[in-house]
TrEMBL record:
<dbReference type="Pfam" id="PF01408">
    <property type="entry name" value="GFO_IDH_MocA"/>
</dbReference>
<dbReference type="Pfam" id="PF22725">
    <property type="entry name" value="GFO_IDH_MocA_C3"/>
</dbReference>
<dbReference type="InterPro" id="IPR050463">
    <property type="entry name" value="Gfo/Idh/MocA_oxidrdct_glycsds"/>
</dbReference>
<dbReference type="InterPro" id="IPR036291">
    <property type="entry name" value="NAD(P)-bd_dom_sf"/>
</dbReference>
<feature type="domain" description="Gfo/Idh/MocA-like oxidoreductase N-terminal">
    <location>
        <begin position="7"/>
        <end position="126"/>
    </location>
</feature>
<dbReference type="InterPro" id="IPR000683">
    <property type="entry name" value="Gfo/Idh/MocA-like_OxRdtase_N"/>
</dbReference>
<keyword id="KW-0560">Oxidoreductase</keyword>
<dbReference type="InterPro" id="IPR055170">
    <property type="entry name" value="GFO_IDH_MocA-like_dom"/>
</dbReference>
<dbReference type="GO" id="GO:0000166">
    <property type="term" value="F:nucleotide binding"/>
</dbReference>
<protein>
    <submittedName>
        <fullName>Dehydrogenase</fullName>
    </submittedName>
</protein>
<feature type="domain" description="GFO/IDH/MocA-like oxidoreductase">
    <location>
        <begin position="146"/>
        <end position="295"/>
    </location>
</feature>
<dbReference type="GO" id="GO:0016491">
    <property type="term" value="F:oxidoreductase activity"/>
</dbReference>
Length: 400
C-alpha cells in the first residue's frame, strides 16, 4: 500500500521498545498508505551475539555494534533511538548532523540542558529537510486522538479538571533487582520520567493546553536493591545470581511521583506515576471534566472512551461508552472491522505511519523535539518542587 519509494531504518536498541518499534516498521506500509516503505536495514547493539539474535528474531537485515557506524551507513535514512535516556542526546544530535531523520524514545533526554541541545540540532536539521519526532506513543491511541478532537470541537466546554494517573506494579517486590530504570545516570528519573512523562504529554495533547506550574511530592520506597547479573528491559527488572551472596546497589530515582498542576487554559490537575500500585499493570488513566461534559479513559481498556454530555437532559446524562473501533475514528480505517479492537503495538504503528507521512510530505512531525523538551521542563519542575519542602505543611505545625 505504500508508495514505491523506500527508506532504510537503523534502530539502536532491541529490548522492549526495540521489539515494539520493529513490529511497527515491519507492518506499517502493509496497512497505511505511507509515501515511503521502511526497510529494516540495520539493528544496533553493543553485544554482537545478542544483537544478531534480536535482528534475526525481529527481521533486521544486518547489525552494527557501534551506533556511529550505523548512522554513517548510506542505506540508513531514519535513525530510531530505543536506548536508555543517557544516550539519546549524543545519538540524536550526531544522526541529525549526518542528515538522518530521527525518531527518539521518551523522555527526550535526561536533563533540560540535553533536551535543549537536541531542540537546537533538530531546528537546524529541519532547515535541511531533516525531520525529528519524540516517541510519545500514547498520542496515537485512537481513543485519545478522539478525545483531543472532541475537546477541540468544544464538546467539553471549558476544561476545569485534568486527572491523570499511570500505575504499574513491577517494582513492588522489594527484592526485584536494580534495573537500569532505577539508576539516575541511565534513566534521568524514575516513575516520573518513564511513565509520568506519558501522562504529562498525553494530557497536554488532549487538552491543547500546557502545564504552567506544579507542586510535587516524590518517594523512593525501596532505597537499595540486589544488583542484577544481567540487565533486562521492559517491565522486568533482570535476574539475580542466587548462587552468590547478594550484592546491593542504591536506587537513585523516584519510585513514585505525585503532583498538582495548573494548565494554561485555567484547568487544575492532579498527576500520579508509580511502579508500586500492586495489581495495576499498565493503568494509564485520564479523566477530563469540562463545563459541557467529561471524558474518561483507561489504557487497560484502550478501545473505549467514556463520555458524559452535560448538555443533554439530566435524565439521560451519565457516562456512556464509545467503542473506538469505527472506521471514522482516528487510525481505524486502516485496521479491522468495528468491534475487533487494537492493542499496545498499534500505537507505535500509528506513530511511524505519521512520521513517514510527514517525512514524505516535507513537514515537521509532532510531537517535536521542542514538545519533548517542554515535557522535560515539567519533569524538572516536579523534581525541583519535590526537593524544596518550602510549600510543605506538616500537621504538627498547623496551629491557629
Ligand atoms: C516501563 O515502565 C514502560 O515500558 C515504559 O518505558 C513505556 O514507555 C510504557 O509504555 C510501558 O512501560
Amino acid at each position: 500500500m505504500a508508495g514505491s519509494d523506500g527508506i532504510g531504518v537503523g534502530m539502536v536498541g532491541y529490548s522492549f521498545m526495540g521489539a515494539v518499534h520493529s513490529q511497527a516498521w515491519r507492518s506499517v506500509h502493509r496497512f497505511f498508505d505511507v509515501p515511503l516503505a521502511p526497510r529494516l536495514a540495520v539493528l544496533g547493539g553493543r553485544d554482537v551475539t545478542k544483537t544478531q539474535a534480536a535482528a534475526t528474531r525481529m527481521g533486521w537485515e544486518s547489525v552494527e555494534t557501534d551506533w556511529r557506524a550505523l548512522i554513517a551507513r548510506d542505506d540508513v535514512g531514519i535513525v530510531d533511538i530505543c536506548t536508555p535516556g543517557d544516550t539519546h542526546a549524543e545519538i540524536a544530535i550526531a544522526a541529525l548532523a549526518a542528515g538522518k531523520h530521527v525518531i527518539c524514545e521518551k523522555p527526550l533526554a535526561n536533563t533540560v540542558a540535553e533536551a535543549d541541545e537536541m531542540v537546537r540540532a533538530a531546528a537546524e536539521a529541519a532547515t535541511r529537510g531533516v525531520r525529528s519526532m519524540v516517541a510519545f506513543n500514547y498520542r496515537r491511541v485512537p481513543a485519545l486522538a478522539l478525545a483531543r478532537k472532541m475537546i477541540a470541537d468544544g464538546r467539553l466546554g471549558t476544561i476545569r479538571h485534568v486527572r491523570a494517573v499511570y500505575l504499574q506494579d513491577w517494582l513492588s517486590d522489594e527484592n526485584a533487582p536494580l534495573a537500569w530504570r532505577l539508576r539516575k545516570e541511565k534513566a534521568g528519573s524514575g516513575a516520573l520520567g518513564d511513565i509520568g512523562a506519558h501522562i504529562i504529554d498525553a494530557t497536554q495533547f488532549i487538552t491543547g493546553q500546557t502545564i504552567t506550574g506544579v507542586s510535587a511530592l516524590t518517594e523512593t520506597f525501596v532505597k537499595q536493591r540486589p544488583l542484577p547479573v544481567e540487565a533486562a528491559g521492559g517491565l522486568t527488572a533482570g535476574a539475580v545470581d542466587s548462587s552468590k551472596p547478594v550484592e546491593y546497589g542504591e536506587v537513585t530515582v523516584d519510585d513514585a511521583a505525585l503532583f498538582l498542576a495548573r494548565f494554561s487554559g485555567g484547568a487544575i490537575a492532579t498527576f500520579e506515576a508509580t511502579r508500586f500500585a500492586t495489581g495495576r499493570k499498565n493503568a494509564m488513566r485520564v479523566e477530563i471534566n469540562g463545563s459541557a461534559g467529561s471524558l474518561s479513559f483507561d489504557f487497560e481498556s484502550m478501545n473505549e472512551l467514556w463520555f458524559h454530555d452535560e448538555t443533554v437532559d439530566a435524565a439521560e446524562g451519565g457516562f456512556r461508552r464509545i467503542v473506538v473501533t469505527e472506521p471514522t475514528h482516528p487510525y481505524l480505517a486502516a485496521w479491522w472491522p468495528p468491534g475487533h479492537g487494537l492493542g499496545y503495538e498499534h500505537t507505535f504503528t500509528h506513530e511511524v505511519a505519521d512520521f513517514l507521512t510527514d517525512i514524505g510530505n516535507g513537514v515537521d512531525p509532532t510531537p517535536s523535539f521542542a514538545d519533548g523538551a517542554q515535557v522535560q521542563r515539567v519533569l524538572h519542575a516536579v523534581e525541583r518542587s519535590a526537593a524544596e519542602s518550602s510549600s510543605w505543611t506538616t500537621i504538627a505545625d498547623s496551629k491557629g
